Structure formats: C-alpha cells, structure tokens
Amino acid sequence: MTPFEANLRIAIQDHQAGRHEEAFKLYRQLLAAAPTHARANAQMGLLLHQHGAHAQAIEHFDTSLRTDEAQADVWTNRGEAARSLDRLDDAEACFRRALRHKPDCAITCNNLGLVLYRRGRLSEAEAAYRQAISIAPGRAKTWANLANVLRDWMRFDEAEAALRKAIELEPDGNISRSNLVFLLGYRSEEAPGEIYAEARQFQVPATSNPTPLTVRPMTGNRRLRIGYVSPDFRSHSVATFIEPVLAAHDSGRVEVFCYANVPRPDEVTERLRSRVGAWHSIYTLNDQAATSLIRSHQLDVLVDLAGHTAGNRLGIFALRAAPVQACYLGFFATTGLRTMDYWITDEVLHTTDYRDLFVEQLWRLPRCWLAYQPPADAPPPDVAPNREEIVFGSFNQILKVTPATVQLWTSVLERVPHSRLLLKTKSLADADARDRLIAQFVQRGITADRVALLPAVRSRQDHLASYANVDIALDTFPYSGGTTTCEALWMGVPVVTLAGGTMPSRMSTSILRAAGFANGCAHSAEEFLEIAVRLAAEHRARTVEERRAFRAQQREQVAKSSLCDGPALAHALEGAYAQMLKDHLDRQ
Q: Is residue 115 a part of any domain in this protein?
C-alpha cells in the first residue's frame, strides 16, 4: 500500500467515524498531491454534500467521473447533490446512469422515485419504488415513499397498507407514523377516532424526560416571548398565512423567535426572516440540540406550525422546549403529544370540545383562525369570453378528490345542463393519473368530454390567471380547500363548500364566513347542489361586463374583510398567548 493509499484510508475512516474536520484536512492534502484522483474526489464530494455544499460537491464528483465513468455510487451521490439543488433533470439523469452500472441498487431506485415523484410522474415513481422494494423489501423508507404515490393516486387503502408496513419495519419511525396520521385525514368523516389513536402512538424520544421550566412572571413591561417552529418558512401555503401574523405582531407587546426547519431556503424564507427579530435555522440540529437552543431563549409560548405534516419537529415539543406549547395553522388534528397544551382554532372549525379526538385543549380565537395575504403580483380578476356553458372548477390537490368529492361534483354536473368541470393540479401531468380520474366520472355517467384536466402551470401569475376560465369553484370533501379557497375568492370566483363534522371539512366554511360569503356554505349534499345551481343561474344571467364587475367587487369585499386583516389576527393571537401563560402561572 502506497503512502497515498494509506492516508486515503485514514481519511475515509475519519469521515465514516464523524471526524469530519480531520477528514476534510486529509482530503485536501491528498487532492493537492493528486487533483484528479477518482476515489479522493468522490469522497471529498460526498463530505461536501453532507455539509450542504452541493455545488462544490458536484465539481468533485465530475472530476472523479471523468477519471472513471463507471462508478455507480458516485453517480448516485452526484444525483443526490443535484436533487438537493432542485436540479431535477440533472438528478434523474445521474440516477439512470448509476442504474446502468448497478441495476440492483435499491437506494438508487428509491432516489430516482423521489425525483420522479417531485416531477409529478407518478406511474414512473411507483415503478421505481416497487423495483427498490423487490431488491430490498426491508427498507422502511421506500415503503413510506411508495405510500405517498399511492395516496396521490387516491388509492388510500393501499397507501395505508404501505405505511403500516413501513411502521412494522421501523416501529420507532415517526415520519411514517406522521404520514399515516396525515393520510387518515382524507377519510376523517368516516373514522375520526383513528387519527387520535394513531397520533397517540407517536414515539416520544427515550431521552425525553424534560426538566421543569421556570416561568418568569409577567411583571412591569416585560414582553411575551413567542416562538414559531416550522419546516414551511419558504414558498408554501403555511408561509402565506403566517406572514401577515409575523408582519403585524406588536413589538411592544411580544418578542418573536422563528425556528426554521428548512433545507433549501428561498426568497420567501428571506422575506419572513426580515419580519422578525430572532431567526434560527434548526435543520441541522437534532431534537435534543434544538430543544436546548430554544430553552436557552426562555420563551413563554412555543407554537408548532406543522403538526404531522412533512418536516415536522414534534420531537422538540415532546421534550418540552417551552412552558406553554401550542399547535396552530398547519395541521388538522391532534398531535397526540401530552406536552402539547393547546390547539388554536376558531368557533367555526370546532363547534364542540371534541375531547375524545384531541389531547390538547382547544383554544378558540374570537375570529377566523387565519388571515390571507394576497400575492402582490396577482393579476386583476378577469372572465373568459361569453359562453353558454357553465364551467365549474377546482385547483385543489388531486388527493383531495376523494370518491365522496367525485360523487358530489357528478351530481352538480347532472343538475346543471350545459356545464363541465375544469380540474388543475400538479399530479395531472401524469397520463395515468388523468385516466384514473376521468374513469371515476365515466363510471358515474359523466362523459369524458365534460371533464377537462390541466397540470399545474409554472408561475403563480399564470396559476391565478387560470381562474378566468372558471365560473364557480367547487370545494373538495371531506378535506376542504385552504389556500385554493382564498385564491378563488381573491380572483373573484364564487366558492361552494360542504361543511362536515371535522376540522378538515370546515376550513373553507370558516374562510367563506370571514370573507362575507356564508351563502356559499352548505351543510348537506343537497344544499351544496342547490347553491351550485343558484350560482350557475346567476352567472348565466350576467353579461360579460357584469361578470367582470362582479369579480372586481368580490375582490374588493375580500380585501376589506376580516379574512385579510392580519393585524386583527396578530392581536387576537397575542391575547391568546398572554392568557395561556397567565393560566399556566395560576396553575403553578
């Protein structure tokens, strides 16, 4: 063994043992001596990728591959670095090159599936995951990834079975448990108790025996210290709704801390960061380290904005990072954590206490639980040229289009002659997804020409402009719209929703009431049909200019409503946080 090979072996051992500083130093020395060495470049690239320096990592991977093109593992690692940079075409090409050299690599098949899923190519993603499972059936992550595709196919029973398989293989896997809780929300009307039962199985870390926190009394002019934890401080619907709050918090009343679990910050991340005084990235911190950081800030109230959605940090809340902890905005059901004290809602979302469905105490705000911040670059409301037919539409995610939704929409199309349905969402880029969805309507007697399916468009302006082609928006059930409902209202399109018995089915009802359009809220399928028929008749009676004026008037009403009143919501939340802390101090 040459001295070079011996030092490379030591560097790799340091790397694998987590002694990264030592590994970096040795890799640099080796590459200074042999700049094109394949293995040294591959290892340096991997270490840089692991530390988030993805672009630099790719440079080293490319040098390694120019020396030896047949390195399947290096192609896989390069693909992962490209995926981290959101260069999906590049990542896909890398994974396919890796599989040419090593077709039986389950990890590469899984990673290819992740890229295909991100690109909306569900059929190909499912095939990649199933190939990975055939090679290595014991990998829980692949089963969980397959479940995401099956969920988007609306094959909920198969998705649930895949998630339960992932949990069986990895009983402590909280990501799969959270995904299962989230999945059950799409049939929450049928068995809401299932969500509670599964959430209670969330695995609290074994080291979580949190020491009691000392709460500073609210004396003199001391401001409340409030923290928000989220993986969605980025281009995401949660950011749309939390930004008005962050912008309107009274700095004389509260100090705001944000804890971002964001792997790829974007322009929205930076804008949100400018809204608050204290911003901390916790993406690279484990739960214990993040909890220690948050505890050092001596918060009064810590607010979770994710629940069991992707990227959540519920482990921090299980470790009791603040004396008062609450769940808000980003989730629809209990977290299942005994250390989560409150669940912030309003009187429309939760009409009773639901004590058998929530670990937390429900805290009802005296207004709509959210505030919408319309995009500054939204186009003005517009309408399509005069036409005889009525176009109903929905831009909700395809997985919200449950059999109950399809049946509801079918009844509308049957009741309103010369009408059709326009659906637009990312998953409809996949031909099989389109065929499956059309088949559901055909099975119920609706001919395929009455249902138009469009994939998502690239820009937000084009997305919002698409509402010009929709006369009336039909909501999904039992998981109603949130952002899509607000967007339709802002673009002047009336919305019809059906309120069920659980929070997911009542989000649009709360939004419509806050915007002043309670007449779009139904409480039965028949009432939903009646509202849709009435709105269709009213639309037909208007000229094109009257329709355009109607939409402009609707936007004006929305802008002046409590739905867009961020300061009022921030004030209501500040009052809630103060009372929560007071109650906590009284109990102490």
A: yes
